[in-house]
Specification:
This protein is α/β, with parallel strands linked by helices. It contains 7 helices and 6 strands; from the N terminus they run E-H-H-E-H-E-H-H-H-E-H-E-E. The protein has one domain: Rossmann fold (3-Layer(aba) Sandwich), CATH 3.40.50.
Length: 199
């Protein structure tokens, strides 16, 4: 692994109606709501002050729509990266978060904590999403830097886990907000633009 890191921004997509209703989305694919479009516009304004050279996004509609709003504002075309997709949340998809916290408290607590051993009933594990996210961000780090990655709360938490950080609950990751991340550069790209010595 390279001892050089690159800078990127990770952003959660804008809000959908399902998000506003407190539902688990997973691979469900609703569009942005009007509030989500406004959040995407605010993200674009925030990113406009950064030297973003590339935009990558999840294949799900809410992420693609958010990335397109930013792309239109800064003139950088987004690239869809399949591994940035949200986790497969199995039988939890479409169910209210508040209901799951009551009917499956222990399982829900493991989900909230980002326990890598947690598995969505009928879906994938957090560990599987961490593995996918590692692959995705390694691709991003090998491309043009600095980059903006527009994806999902699960993706952002997986990225934090992959860098050894404790992830916040999903509810703490606001729609349309970006967080900075430092990621190891692929060895062949270590001397590229945006590469920084690791701490």
């Amino acid at each position: 692994m390279s001892n050089v890191v690159v800078s990127m921004l990770l952003a959660r997509h804008g809000e959908t109606r399902d998000n506003a209703q407190g539902l688990i989305l997973g691979r469900r694919d609703p569009p942005l709501s009007s509030a989500g479009q406004e959040q995407a516009a605010r993200l674009a304004a925030r990113v406009a002050s950064e030297p973003v050279a590339a935009i990558w996004c999840s294949p799900l509609l809410r992420a693609r729509q958010t990335a397109t709003v930013v792309a239109d504002a800064i003139g950088v075309a987004p690239t869809v990266l399949e591994d940035l997709i949200e986790s497969d949340r199995g039988s939890w998809e479409g169910r209210p978060v508040a209901e799951l916290a009551v009917v499956s408290p222990a399982l829900f607590a493991a989900f909230e904590a980002g326990d890598e051993g947690f598995v969505f009933p009928g879906g994938e594990s957090i560990a599987q999403q961490v593995q996918r996210t590692r692959r995705a961000l390694t691709v991003v780090a090998g491309g043009r830097i600095p980059a903006l990655v527009v994806a999902h709360a699960g993706t952002i938490r997986a990225a934090l886990i992959a860098t050894g950080r404790k992830p916040p609950p999903e509810r703490a990751l606001h729609h349309g907000e970006a967080i900075p991340l430092r990621w190891p550069a692929p060895a062949a790209e270590a001397a590229g633009t945006g590469a920084l010595p690791s701490d």
